[in-house]
Design brief:
Elements: H1 11-25, H2 30-46, H3 54-59, H4 65-69, H5 71-74, H6 79-89, E1 100-102, H7 110-114, E2 117-121, E3 124-127
Antiparallel strand pairs: 1-3, 2-3
Length: 128
């Protein structure tokens, strides 16, 4: 892969990544939280159709439900969120380039009809 995975983000971006992990994956294990972080970063690193910064990817309209329903504003990251962030910063990446995830009960939904299924971890299915 010729694209450089830039991990030189600032404290504010680190906080936003930990916070989206908490908002989306509070009940998941550390790896589950890391996968949420990696979906955000994969969008920043690889895809032209997404925004170019961590902040803008997280706040892009209709992308992450905790933004639209207000949960993102109410949560604070726990220790596991920062453990997940540190894993990612140290190079852990089993995301297979995942760009989307969902936790719908039905396996027949927009994601499954329009995207390539990659794997399931905890309560989330990941796609690209």
């Amino acid at each position: 892969d010729s694209l450089i995975k830039n991990k030189d983000w600032d404290a504010e971006d680190s906080y936003l990544l930990a916070k989206i992990a908490m908002a989306e994956a509070e009940g998941e294990d550390v790896e589950g939280k890391a996968f949420v972080i990696l979906v955000v970063l994969n969008r920043v690193w690889y895809k032209d159709e997404f925004e170019d910064t961590i902040h803008d990817v997280i706040y892009e309209k209709n992308q992450f439900s905790p933004i639209s329903d207000g949960r993102f504003d109410r949560v604070e990251p726990n220790e596991e969120c920062y453990e997940a962030l540190e894993m990612v910063m140290l190079g852990w990446d089993k995301s297979n380039g995942a760009l989307y995830f969902e936790s719908e009960k039905s396996a027949d939904n927009w994601h499954s009809r329009h995207l390539d299924y990659l794997f399931t971890h905890g309560g989330h299915r990941f796609y690209k």
